[in-house]
């Protein structure tokens, strides 16, 4: 499980470093959370569809990789920083869109895995 977490964290850091140099609104964390939600939806759908996957593989990918790739703590810190910097409306839109799109991405992943 820790190998998946390490890989997920490394990819999240790379994605954030890359996107945040072009978009000043925490695009890296936002993208990682939405993409990670889609990935965990796909994985859970596949695990339901094909129950023969080993429990260790499920832990490695769903808990390890997706847990390391997505991050609520970084999102929360970015929210606090936006509010401190006077961007309260931006912080609220960012939080709401992350939650709505994150849940929608999980549903989409589940739906796609059944096709």
Q: What are the salient characteristics of this protein?
A:
single chain; 115 residues; mainly alpha
What does this protein structure show overall?
The chain has 115 residues and is mainly alpha-helical. 83% of the residues lie in helices and 0% in strands. The longest helix has 26 residues, at 88-113. The protein is globular and about 50 Å long. The two termini are 28 Å apart.
Count of helices? 5
Number of structural units classed as domains: 1
Helix content: over 70%
What's the multimeric state?
Answer: single chain
Q: What is the CA-atom radius of gyration, in angstroms? A: 15 Å
Topology (elements, then pairings):
Blueprint: H1 2-20, H2 27-49, H3 55-69, H4 72-84, H5 88-113
